[in-house]
Amino acid sequence: MSDSREATARANANIALVKYWGKRDARLNLPAAGSLSATLAGLCTTTTVRFEDAPYARDRLLIADQQAPPSMLKKALRVVNLLRTRAGLDAAVTIRTHNDFPTGAGLASSASGLAALAVATAAAAGLELAPHELSRIARQGSGSACRSLYGGFVRWDAGEAKDGSDSFARPLYPAEHWEALRVVVALVSTEPKPRDSTSGMTHTAATSPYHAAFVASVDADLDAAEAAIAAHDIEALGRVAERSCLRMHADMLAAEPPLLYLQPLSWRVLSCVRELQEAGEPLFFTVDAGPNIKIFCLEESVPRVRAALATIDELNGTIEARLGHDACVLL
Ligand code: PMV
Predict the structure, then answer these.
(1) 52 CA to middle of ligand 1, Å?
(2) What would the mean pLDDT of 98-104 be, rounded to a whole number?
(3) What's the gap in Å between 36 CA and the centre of ligand 1?
(4) Fewer C-beta neighbours within 10 Å, C or N terminus of the chain?
(5) How many separate helices (H) and strands (E) can be counted in the chain?
């Protein structure tokens, strides 16, 4: 290759409303069940990929200008290698990535990160791929990344094919479908989480007696969540999202040894959410594999949510987001 090629892409994080927890194929990142998420505008990864000219250049990953640990480079290369092979390239890549939110703290940085990487690598390699193909490729870096290709509300069906060809995300409704929806993230901790999702899922599937029941409950939740979103029914959506989240955490807690992602402060935030709900505020919570609590509410409720969270001194702040848009190449 004579000219180095470079492209920059941006993708937003997504938060699952119906959770993905468990794989039917770990190598291909194929989920045991579907999932459904909301893409958020406030939590974004920007990634530049450059195919190097230098003959002895090595693949490199820099996160916020710091050399990333080998495990992260390995994950990124799962995505890069698929695209590099497809484009018939063998040049080394330099990946520079930046999150505008804390990395690895259960705020879905792997989702936005690997989605932005797939889009930037394809563009730098000169490949023009349909979004669902990029979704399938991003999935192989991190399952939830396949959902960050799209804005608004997104559904990832488990698929049935052994090679994963039918397992990618599809957009349900764009961000404009529910303009008033907001997410307030209560930052319990910005430290990287102690255990990554893949090892947490494998451990849960291998040891939790609740796992089969969790997986079996997902299909009904997907349809109920989709119907609630279609109807802009925040209370119905909240019932599904809270039960999906709590069933996932029950599954994790039943593993041997148990996985405890929630911290005492997380529980205080959850009590605060319950108090707001009991006072008639239409809102709900969800939590991923980390301690931070995401509160979905309507725009008009944000000041009251913020005021309630402000009474919890130990919180490390809040992030507010609205629904975000598709991943894209930056020109
Ligand atoms: O895509 P991963 O491997 O980072 O797993 C994501 C798992 C959860 O965030 C807990 C749930 C989800 O559906 O995003």
Answers:
(1) 32
(2) 78
(3) 11
(4) C
(5) 8, 14
DSSP 9: E
Closest CA to 266 of 292, 284, 242: 292
Ligand 1 pocket, CB under 6 A: 16, 19-21, 35, 110, 142-144, 197-198, 288-289
Q: How far is ligand 1, taken at its centre, from the CA of residue 3, in Å? A: 37
3-state secondary structure of 260: coil
Q: What is the pLDDT of residue 1?
A: 44
How far, in Å, is the centroid of ligand 1 from the Cα of 35?
9
DSSP states of 211-244:
HHHHHHHHHHHHHHHHHHHHTT-HHHHHHHHHHH
Residue pLDDT, tens place only, 233-269: 999 999 999 999 999 999 999 999 999 999 999 999 9
Cβ pair 285, 189 in contact under 8 A: no
Instruction: Write down the pLDDT at residue 109.
Output: 76
Residue 106, pLDDT score: 61
pTM: 0.96
Which ligand 1 atom is at minimum distance from the Cα of 14?
14
Which atom of ligand 1 sits closest to the CA of residue 198?
3
What's the CA gap between 281 and 305, in Å, rounded? 9
Q: Does 197 have pLDDT greater than 70?
A: yes
Q: What angle do CA 293, 295, 298 make, to 5 degrees?
A: 170
Q: Sign of the CA dihedral 236, 285, 322, 215?
A: negative
Separation CA 141–CA 253 (nearest Å): 26
β 318-322/328-330 pair status:
unpaired
CB 306 within 8 A of CB 184: yes
**Spacing, Cα 242 to ligand 1 middle (Å):** 16
Top mean pLDDT of 3-17, 48-62, 250-264 is at 250-264
The Cα-based distances of 188 to 211, 292, 328 in angstroms read 27, 5, 31
Q: What is the rounded distance in angstroms from the CA atom of residue 152 to the CA atom of residue 40? A: 8
